[in-house]
Design brief:
S9 family peptidase, Serine_Peptidase_S9A, hydrolase, AB_hydrolase_fold, Peptidase_S9A, 38 strands, seven-stranded antiparallel sheet, eight-stranded mixed sheet
């Protein structure tokens, strides 16, 4: 990298806090003042510095962006999904940032989804929403809700133009194309229609931005007349709302990190009082799916990896076992159809699907051919159906959509995401790439899985560069996924690896429990063990290894930078949760109280305080030789505040000034970064160019 420019100077304004007899000085707390012109000026100066330090990569960024664009079929059409009398689908158009939501009437005798040549509009198409028109005049655009009423007449949709995930809810008459005067500001994700489409349920948040209320809105009335259906006052819990696939019940889901409760309202009686399926019990989680005269209950009551039961839909009571608990087989979801149940599960680190015909003991698992893959149900809105839509991919197989016949067990490929020829003009051939499952040995003897992909013939003598990705929180699993942009790295000889570390859910609930609360450090030491293993096994060398993670995975990046700075030549931390202790100590911040069951409550528990302080990245910056660090954040992020990476980079420069640290802030986006697809591609090209520069492949 060039060295002509100097980083902006972050002023030091010491601010003290004391907890459990421990006083901490925070010199950069002033950066949390988002509305202060000095803060904005500092972030702008950091962006200018990053631009100057990466100016030599401009041509490479342009090449990487062009490679992604060239390999992508820009004008495309998703596989239409049937709901009632219409096929619903999304179109993208070359040169346009956002999708176009459409539908077309089902024609007489039509059973297979219609197709079009080269993503062209279907004959008879009805445009429901054009994201490009909605986004005009805005730097950011996101849809929160997109919910067609059961009769197909109304469309409830919500929009966010800043990235703070606070949406304005509107209703469109699909028969006339006109917007109703109904408009509700500051809503959250989640809507549900009553059976007759006269009532729309939605969610709002409290002052800490916690989804805490479910509302009932009567179509044609003013938002001021809306009624609160359920308010959750326990700050550990958040709420959601949905209509069951059967369209018989409104479900109000109430969850904390470890406890849940579900309330139901008959969709035919939307003004009725919610009834509780089973009262909340600390540590018991359950979800509900309606199926005929019963509610299916997926739960962990005495079942670490969850079991499936049912109870009466008329008078909910005792839970009758349907699938007993099997240690090591994590049941994740159940989808009910008129004559079949489909259970989503994972075992041995891989996702799977189990089909249970109603009234039969002949249940079975669907087989898939690759050693590493990710599979799950796609949109399946029809309750009475003999087939389901699946989505499948792997590290070398592009996203694929299948229809699976639940009776004949035949699987038909409807569409695989096109991967067009790259810069050399050659079509994509998965046979030119190979994927592997490897295992690292953690400090405590635990075997940690690693998924890898590289070009065939990539050397195993330590000479290949490698990107190691990790997350490891909230029981979220980093299952193998295909990436068009990643091909640009693989074709330059880079190995891509995913560390399936504890704190994630790849190996079941125990895998998660061993990487949270007072066992959180296992997440970090597992990742370092994976990095060391990749070097020992000849996949790469430490001076060719770049680590990458986002959000809670950004906390992972900051922690391993302190724990093993010699293990990496570079670290990419996106929207990183690097000032975790400060945030979790402040219950007024968005989502803090709901996070205590994931990290612990350092406000009241001195042991949790001491433990978090021992690993949180910002608290543990030391005068050591750090790898180069690129931190990427967004000004309007409400999940991980921009100030966390801004403070972290400032402290790194002050305490370990010999390091190479960059901060890039999206000034008009949220947690997910830029919203348009071309802007997202440019962001990925920026990061990948920086990675290639670090590993000598620029």
């Amino acid at each position: 990298m060039t060295t002509e420019t100097a980083p902006p100077a972050a002023k030091r304004v010491p601010s003290e806090r004391t907890h459990h007899g421990d006083t901490v000085v925070d010199e950069y707390a002033w950066l949390a003042a988002k509305d202060d012109p000095e803060t904005i000026a500092y972030l702008t100066a950091e962006n200018e510095y990053t631009d100057a330090r990466t100016a030599h990569l401009a041509d490479l960024r342009a090449d990487l962006f062009e490679e992604t664009r060239r390999r992508t079929q820009e004008t495309d059409l998703s596989v239409p999904t049937r709901k009632g009398g219409h096929w619903y689908y999304t179109r993208t158009v070359e040169g346009q940032q956002y999708g176009v939501q459409c539908r077309r009437a089902v024609r007489d005798g039509e059973t297979d989804p219609p197709v079009s040549a080269d993503g062209a509009p279907l004959d008879g198409e009805e445009v429901l929403l054009d994201g490009n028109l909605l986004a005009e005049g805005h730097d950011f655009f996101s849809l929160g809700a997109f919910d067609v009423s059961p009769d197909g007449r109304w469309l409830a949709y919500s929009t966010d133009f800043s990235g703070d995930e606070r949406f304005t809810l509107r209703v469109k008459d699909l028969t006339t194309g006109e917007l109703l005067p109904d408009e509700v500001p500051d809503t959250f994700y989640g809507t549900a229609w009553s059976a007759d489409a006269s009532v729309l349920f939605y969610v709002t948040v409290d002052d800490a931005w916690r989804p805490n209320r479910v509302w009932r809105h009567t179509i044609g009335s003013a938002a001021a007349d809306d009624a609160v259906v359920h308010q959750e006052d326990d700050e550990r819990f958040w709420v959601g709302v949905e209509l069951t696939r059967s369209e018989k019940f409104i479900l109000i889901d109430v969850h904390s990190k470890v406890t849940s409760e579900v309330l139901v309202i008959p969709a035919s009686n939307p003004t009725g009082a919610p009834a509780v399926i089973a009262p909340r019990r600390q540590g018991v989680e359950y979800t509900v799916e309606h199926h005929g005269h019963r509610f299916l209950i997926l739960h962990n009551d005495g079942a670490e990896d969850f079991a499936l039961a049912f109870t009466s839909a008329d008078v909910p009571g005792d839970w009758v076992p349907l699938i007993e608990h099997t240690p090591g087989t994590r049941l994740e979801a159940v989808d009910a159809f008129a004559n079949h149940l489909v259970v989503s599960l994972r075992t041995d680190g891989l996702t799977g699907l189990r089909v249970l015909p109603v009234g039969s003991d002949d249940g079975y698992d669907i087989d898939f051919p690759e050693p590493l893959y990710s599979v799950g149900l796609d949109a399946n809105p029809e309750y009475r159906t003999g087939q389901v839509r699946l989505r499948y991919s792997s590290l070398i197989t592009p996203d694929s959509v299948y229809d699976y016949d639940l009776v004949t067990r035949q699987m038909v490929l409807l569409k695989q995401k096109p991967v067009l020829p790259g810069p050399d003009g050659r079509p994509y051939d998965p046979a030119e790439y190979e994927q592997h499952r490897d295992w690292a040995l953690a400090d405590d003897g635990t075997r940690v899985p690693i998924s890898l992909v590289c070009r065939v013939g990539t050397p195993r003598d330590g000479s290949a560069p490698c990107e190691l990705y990790g997350y490891g929180s909230y029981e979220a699993s980093m299952d193998p996924w295909f990436s068009v942009a990643r091909l640009s790295l693989l074709d330059r000889g880079v190995v891509f690896a995913v560390a399936h570390i504890r704190g994630g859910g790849e190996l079941g609930r125990r895998w998660y429990d061993q990487g949270k609360l007072l066992a959180k450090k296992n997440t970090f030491t597992d990742f370092v063990a994976c990095a060391r293993h990749l070097v020992k096994a000849g996949w790469t060398a430490s001076d060719r290894l770049v680590a990458r993670g986002a959000s809670a995975g950004g906390l992972l990046m900051g922690a391993v930078a302190n724990l093993a700075p010699d293990a990496f030549t570079g670290i990419v931390a996106q929207v990183p949760f690097v000032d975790a202790l400060t945030s979790i100590l402040d219950p007024s911040l968005p989502l803090t109280v709901t996070e205590w069951e994931e990290w612990g409550n350092p406000l009241d528990d001195p042991e949790v305080y001491a433990y978090m302080k021992s690993y949180t990245p910002y608290e543990n910056v030391a005068a050591v030789d750090y790898p180069a660090i690129l931190a990427v954040t967004s000004l309007n992020d409400t999940r991980v505040l921009y100030s966390e990476p801004a403070k972290w980079i400032a402290r790194l420069r002050a305490v370990a000034p010999s390091g190479d640290y960059l901060l890039k802030t999206e000034m008009g986006a949220g947690h997910g970064g830029p919203s348009g697809r071309y802007d997202s591609w440019r962001e990925e090209a920026f990061i990948n160019a920086w990675i290639l520069d670090r590993i000598g492949r620029a």
